[in-house]
Every structure is written in C-alpha cells, then in structure tokens.
Input
Amino acid sequence: MFLTLNTSILPLIPQQYAGKLQIIFRQQIQPWHPSSTLVHEAALAVLRLSPEKFYPFSQMLFERQKEFFDVSVVKETRNETYRRLAKLAKEAEVDEEKVYGLLEIADKPGEDGGLNSGNGVTDDVKVMVKVNRLTGVHVTPTVLFNGAVENSISSSFTGEQWKEWLEKNIEQ
Output
C-alpha cells in the first residue's frame, strides 16, 4: 500500500485535495516479525535526522524489504542489521554514521547500570506504539478516515481504486 500511495496518491493531494485531505503515515511494528522493529527504528532515525528523506527512505525499505525479512537477518547480530539499515539510509542521502549512532545497542551497561536501555530511538518507538494503540491500529495496513478505521480499503488497493475512493469520499 505504501508504494501505491507514495507514487500514485501523495502527488495528487496538493493538486486535487489541497485543504481537504491530510495523510498521516504512521508506522506499525509487526511484533511477530522481530526484524520489523529494527526496520521501523531505522525509519524513525531517518525521520529524526532528515525528515525530508523519510518518504524516499521508506520507499527504499519497501522496495528492498525482503533483505530485512526474518530469514534474511537471522544470522546477523542486531547491530549488524542496524549497520545495513544505516548504509541504506546513506543511499537516501542521510548520514550513515548518525543513523547508526541512533540505532546502535551498547555492549556495556549504561551509566546507571541498566542492561536494557534501548537505543537513540527507543522513546520514539514507545510513542509510536502508544499512538497506534489509542487509534485502534493493530495490524498493517490500517487506514483511518476522519479518525475511524476504514475497513473498505485493503492492502491490495490500486492507484485507480484509491482515486475512485477519494473522489467518492472527499468533497470537491
């Protein structure tokens, strides 16, 4: 759905729906795919460092998602996967070392002796998860329209189906 929205629908909004439609893209971690968290953390790092690169980076993640599926990362350490994600961010013209710096998990206890302190985007993940829970988002993709889950929109929606749906539901 992201690829369809990013290429077919987002470009239409300023032209056809300016002032009438706002799209908010919220990430949703799939906890049954452990590497999903790492990929979402990388996107959050990019969003924090270079917000204008978030959509291009997300596009790259969706296009290359199989490189980060469970089977593709199972033999890597978490930091090795983060390193690959940081290299991908570099391809989106975001500073690789800064991205990795936000993602890296320390191999020593924190100053307070903590052993489970997370990384530089852990608090961002917590906020994202809380917001999604509050809006009733549990799976991906989930579309909300005027604050309510819109079940008529499916992950297989084509660009044309999106255009038809928008024409029908957004006042011109």
